[in-house]
């Protein structure tokens, strides 16, 4: 766990430092001047916990809270009359100075619990997203053409042909596109239930096939070769009876 | 209760009230030449310390059981529960009596230093430095009625009184911090009393 101490009172800086050292909390910064602390508000969010004094000259702890540092805050103040206002800023705890080690530990444990809680929420979100990705049927992809991202509806793609460092994407009722990528990379983006690589240079949209010969398929006006090795797989995909 | 000394003496053995002053401090006090007169005051409960500069009978002390008592040594009194000093009474003796009978204690600070001597010394040094600065600044701020600066200075030291177990001084400091901007006269007077508590802290930390 890492922390930053913001307190203009050298005594309490020493006091908190001592407690932090006892339980191996790494002190990433000490600000005895709250003006500098506010100037470096982004840095403040780089730690797990801020010990923040309220009554400081020029810039108070509340002024810093108004800028919503993106981390956990524990208030350390000699005056408990500010507690209600402080909790409006979602601070984790409010330590009235002076506080003993046991009380300090309670505050640190509350922060740890909050951290674990947010880690669980994050991991739950990641699980959900990956689950959604697995079950979601994509109906479009974005391709980069001349530094612009262009949305392509998958149902408009008929054939994709490898052309060296590029691919030629043929679209139904639209102009063909030349995209700087490989067939392999593009294949990973396309749903396997709809798109099938029939040849080392061709991927086709199975829904657009109008005719199948022994070694070729016809899509629109294009005749596409089928590799020998792919013929049986294609038949299975299309539920063709022998 | 903030420091407020009751001095009782014989009329023929009176001392100058100058003994309650030094360059910075004025110890709040009331001088009475007869205990009978003291009894006329319902305010005897309002004193923090009692000094007898007269021959004293133990029965006279009954009503002051809860406050520290200093007896000037010419009195032959066979009782060690009271502090004794030789005459003549002077500022140093009075202040030493007040300081040594205060609630000052390092026990809480030791506990907060988690038993580490180095940390304790560091924390004591921090307090010493801060209280020395406050002791030097506050009388000038009081004279100039610089209320904002007084509030800030008192706020900064208030919680240390609590750490040093000087609960009355802590309450006094908190009251000053909370009220000085609205109740100037009363709190400026309280500030003068707080300077005595600051002096006690310095005296105790240096000893």
List unreliable stretches of 5+ residues of chain A.
Answer: 132-136
Average pLDDT of chain B, to the nearest integer?
A: 84
Radius of gyration of chain A: 31 Å
As a whole number of angstroms, the C-alpha radius of gyration of chain B is 18 Å
How large is the count of helical segments of chain A?
Answer: 8
Mean pLDDT of chain A, rounded to whole units? 85
Q: Helicity level of chain B, as a percent range?
A: 40-55%
| Number of separate domains of chain B | 2
Structural class determined from secondary elements of chain A: alpha/beta
- The CATH class of the largest domain in chain A turns out to be Alpha Beta
Distance between the termini of chain A: 66 Å
CATH level-4 homologous superfamily of the largest domain in chain A: Response regulator
How many domains of chain A? The number is 2
What is the CATH topology assignment of the largest domain in chain A? Rossmann fold
Main beta sheet of chain B, described?
Answer: 5 strands, parallel
Terminal CA distance of chain B: 24 Å
Helix content of chain A: 25-40%
Report on this model:
- The complex is a heterodimer of chains A (242) and B (207).
- The longest helix of chain A has 35 residues.
- In chain A, the strands form 4 sheets. Chain A has a 5-stranded parallel beta sheet with strand order 2-1-3-4-5.
- By secondary structure, chain A is α/β, with parallel strands linked by helices.
- The radius of gyration of chain A is 31 Å and the shape is rod-shaped.
- Chain A has 2 domains: 132 residues, Response regulator (Rossmann fold), CATH 3.40.50.2300; 98 residues, OB fold (Dihydrolipoamide Acetyltransferase, E2P) (Beta Barrel).
- In chain A, β6 and β7 form a beta hairpin.
- In chain A, 34% of the residues lie in helices and 31% in strands.
- By secondary structure, chain B is an alpha/beta fold.
- Chain B has 2 domains: 96 residues, Rossmann fold (3-Layer(aba) Sandwich); 100 residues, Four Helix Bundle (Hemerythrin (Met), subunit A), CATH 1.20.120.
- Helices cover 49% and strands 10% of the residues of chain B.
- Chain B has 7 helices and 5 strands; from the N terminus they run ββαβββαααααα.
- Chain B has a 5-stranded parallel beta sheet with strand order 2-1-3-4-5.
- In chain B, α2 packs across α7 and α5 packs antiparallel against α6.
- Chain B is globular, with a radius of gyration of 18 Å.
- Chains A and B meet through α1 of A and α3, α4 and α5 of B.
């Amino acid at each position: 766990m890492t922390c930053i101490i913001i307190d203009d009172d050298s005594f309490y800086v020493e006091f908190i430092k001592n407690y932090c050292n006892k339980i191996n909390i790494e002190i990433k910064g000490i600000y005895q001047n709250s003006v500098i602390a506010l100037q470096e508000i982004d840095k403040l969010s780089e730690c797990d916990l801020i010990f923040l004094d309220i009554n400081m000259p020029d810039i108070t702890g509340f002024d810093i809270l108004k800028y919503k540092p993106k981390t956990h805050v524990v208030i350390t103040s000699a005056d408990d009359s500010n507690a209600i206002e402080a909790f409006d800023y979602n601070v984790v705890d409010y330590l009235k100075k002076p506080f003993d080690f046991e009380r300090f530990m309670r505050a640190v444990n509350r922060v740890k619990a909050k951290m674990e809680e947010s880690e669980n929420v994050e991991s739950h979100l990641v699980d959900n997203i990956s689950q959604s990705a697995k079950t979601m049927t994509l109906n479009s992809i974005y391709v980069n053409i001349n530094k612009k991202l262009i949305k392509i509806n998958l149902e408009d793609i008929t054939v994709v042909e490898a052309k060296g460092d590029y691919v030629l994407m043929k679209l139904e009722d639209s102009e063909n596109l030349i995209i700087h990528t490989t067939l392999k990379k593009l294949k990973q983006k396309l749903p396997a239930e709809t798109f099938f690589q029939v040849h080392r240079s061709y991927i086709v949209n199975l829904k657009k096939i109008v005719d199948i010969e022994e070694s070729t398929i016809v899509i629109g006006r294009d005749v596409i070769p089928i590799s020998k090795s792919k013929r049986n797989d294609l038949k299975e995909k299309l539920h063709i009876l022998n | 209760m903030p420091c407020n000394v009751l001095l009782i003496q014989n009329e023929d053995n009176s001392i100058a009230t100058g003994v309650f002053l030094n360059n910075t401090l004025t110890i709040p006090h009331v001088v009475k030449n007869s205990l009978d007169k003291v009894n006329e005051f319902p305010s005897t409960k309002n004193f923090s310390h009692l000094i007898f500069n007269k021959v004293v009978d133990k029965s006279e002390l009954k009503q002051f059981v809860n406050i520290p008592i200093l007896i000037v040594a010419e009195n032959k009194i066979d009782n060690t529960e009271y502090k004794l000093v030789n005459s003549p009474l002077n500022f140093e003796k009075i202040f030493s009596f007040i300081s040594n009978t205060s609630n000052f204690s390092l026990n809480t600070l030791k506990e907060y230093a988690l038993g580490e001597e180095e940390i304790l010394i560091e924390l004591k040094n921090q307090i010493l430095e801060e209280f020395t600065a406050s002791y030097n600044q506050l009388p000038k701020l009081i004279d100039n009625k610089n209320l904002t600066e007084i509030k800030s200075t008192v706020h900064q030291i208030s919680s240390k009184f609590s750490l040093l177990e000087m609960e009355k001084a802590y309450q006094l400091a908190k009251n000053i911090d909370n009220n000085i901007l609205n109740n100037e006269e009363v709190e400026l007077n309280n500030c003068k009393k707080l300077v005595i508590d600051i002096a006690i802290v310095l005296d105790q930390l240096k000893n």
